[in-house]
Amino acid sequence: MVMEKVIRRALISVYHKDGLAEILAELNRQGVEFVSTGGTHDFITSLGYSCRAVDDLTRYPAMLGGRVKTLHPMVFGGILARRGHETDVREVNEYDLPLIDLVIVDLYPFEETVASGASEEDIIEKIDIGGISLIRGAAKNFEDVVIISSKSQYAGFYNLLKTKGGQTSLAERKHYAREAFAVSSAYDSAIFRYFDDGEQTAFRMAADSPKVLRYGENPHQRGYFFGNFERYFDKLQGKEISYNNLQDIEAAVSLIGEFTAPTFAILKHTNACGIASRGTLIEAWQAALAGDPVSAFGGILVTNTPIDKETAEEIDKIFFEVIIAPDYDNAAMEFLTRKTNRIILLQKEPVREQWQFRSMFGGVLMQQVDGVTAKATDLEPVTPVVPTADETDDLIFANKVVKHSKSNAITLVKDSQLCASGVGQTSRVDALRQAIEKAKSFGFDLNGAVMASDAFFPFADCVEIAAEAGIRAIIQPGGSIKDNLSIEEATKRGIAMVMTGVRHFKH
Question: What is the C-alpha to C-alpha distance for residues 290 and 83, in angstroms, rounded to an integer?
């Protein structure tokens, strides 16, 4: 088997012509014969190059509205023929099959057509049949054929042509075959997802160009990110975003997306250690920081309001890893960019993904995103004492924060400010005690505060502890067979309790 191959004949059938002219010029200079279809044939000849039409090869015109052009033995025989295989060589000669050494294909833009809101008829017509078959056939026969399966590969292939004079090694052809099957599998996955219409009857996902992270959660672990981070964020400055940064950023924007009033949040290890809503952003920042100024060190900062100079001056006083906002004024950026390692992100649009994925035993766990947020009208009072209007606002606030906290979780809120939370505990009692102790350590008066729990109370103990700390209202999902125990304790203590009917576990 000859490892180096020379390109003598190329079949070219592309949707996008951008970047193709340079390749054609170099191939023409090297004496490569062109074979092509329809619009690509017209493009090649418009540049002054000779090009044989596919229908001249097959002796059949394009038919069925262009659905059938290349699907013919005269095309695929020349692509799939093994040059060193005795039977293949004999049949090539017997049927006069023109050997094809290079295939360049750029598929119909199926995903772009779906995203454009086109009709189903137009979408179906953008399912490429001939092109995907050419890609798979050429990639299968990589020992003899080069396959360029996407316009994203044009620049690299052009450099290869220039440096090697039309010769390719087996390793290079196998590289392009691998890329071709990546293109093919991603294309088929997109088509399946369209037909599946959100039913999730099978798991088919494809992503290209992974971002290599500095490391995973720890330095001894490799880490990669497959996804379109730039869809949601512009990175204005800072060091490379890490695996842990990405998890914290997702947690931060998911939390802040719950609020409409000017709100600032500080997160550590995906949990809020401070969050507050106020009339102005500077007040929201000061109240959020007061929630836990110790944990704020090295934290992730996020707000739903453009950052002004006054707030930036205050933020600049502490060390933080990442800041996220919908905008920054120029004076604010002067302060925030003083330390070049700070990651400054501009959030361009809300994150509205519908599904979450997690690896498990080499497989994938999938669930719908927890998109339920309780409103005042969703609250069911279960005690004689009902919350005041201000307490109701705080209950909703606390419930939003507990929804985004690791279970078991308790949040304590007063005047639209997180006083403290207990997160990731093995018992709800421990979570509550942790929250109370933490709030007291930072000087919060919990008299008149409210409490939220991510799940129901199976016993009366948490209500008793909360009452002794001064808590005046509680929000919880309910659903325990012993709900009556916590309701009776709240009633005895004169505490308002409301139920939402929706649990918010977060593991």
Answer: 74
